[in-house]
Amino acid sequence: MARRPAQDTRAQRSREASSRPQPPAGQPPVSAEQVAAPSNRVLTVPNLISFARLLGVPLFLFLFLFLGPRADVAAIVVLAVGGTSDWVDGYAARRLQQVSRLGELLDPLADRLYILATLVAFTVREVVPWWFTAALLLRELVVAAALAGLRRYGYLGLPVHYLGKTATFVLLFAFPVLLLAHSVAATEDVAGAIGWALAWWGLVLYWAAGALYLVQAATLARAARQGGTAGAGPAQPGVLDSGREEVGR
After folding, report:
1. pTM: predicted TM-score of the whole model, two decimal places
2. C-alpha span between 189 and 37 (Å, rounded)
3. What is residue 67's three-state secondary structure?
4. Which of 20, 126, 140, 180 has a C-alpha 20 to 30 A away from that of 223?
5. pLDDT by residue (tens digit) across 48-107?
């Protein structure tokens, strides 16, 4: 019985070591610190994927707003591929061990641009009502204001919550379905019902995640004030709703 704690500790260490990513054959082992630490590399496979997603934003706007209904099918394809491929660059970063600081910025930037550009374009062409766009944008403004207040304590962001990541994915999946219902009359009933169900679900999750981020921000700010660390808090890298911390990008 006296030896069980030591045996449990050894077993736990063994499980942790076996769960770490293994390098390709012929390469030296990679430490946990090396796996977790992002690099300064720019030309990586995940970053190229993120760049391609970013290029899809102006392409979608050109097809949808400037070419009009005749290019709606192409716009649907661009929006579907760009919006629902959010997980690809993060998976590639994990799989290829190509975590980079630039990648941590590019992926959430692409998500934000897809959401904002789609909302504006959909509102202009009346795919969604203005109040739906306003509800999503208001959430962005509220959370941005909370983050701005948090930065005075030295925090650059908040840990990513799975709820925010889920909300972003649901919204990016809902948009092409709504566009399909708007553009193809034969799919209006079915696609419209599915698209709006996803859109409402995404909106509720988006605000729920925003509430969690506000609670986190208030907790950190209160702790910083009590500790007298205003302006000198530890920098906490992280981007809301991006999923970077979770997927190791």
Report:
1. 0.70
2. 48
3. coil
4. 140
5. 888 888 899 999 999 999 998 889 999 999 988 887 777 777 777 778 787 777 777 777
Query: Alpha-carbon distance 25 to 227, whole Å?
Result: 49
CB 238 within 8 A of CB 168: no
Closest CA to 132 of 177, 105, 171, 85: 171
Going along the chain from its start, the domains and CATH numbers come out as 42-246 (1.20.120)
What is the rounded CA–CA span in Å between residue 155 and residue 13?
32
Structure tokens at 238: 């992280």
Q: How far apart are CA 117 and CA 110, in angstroms?
A: 10
Q: Radius of gyration (Cα) for the chain, nearest Å? A: 21
Ramachandran region of residue 228, left (φ > 0), alpha (ψ -120 to 50) or beta? left
Can you tell me which residue has the tokens 């690809």? 88
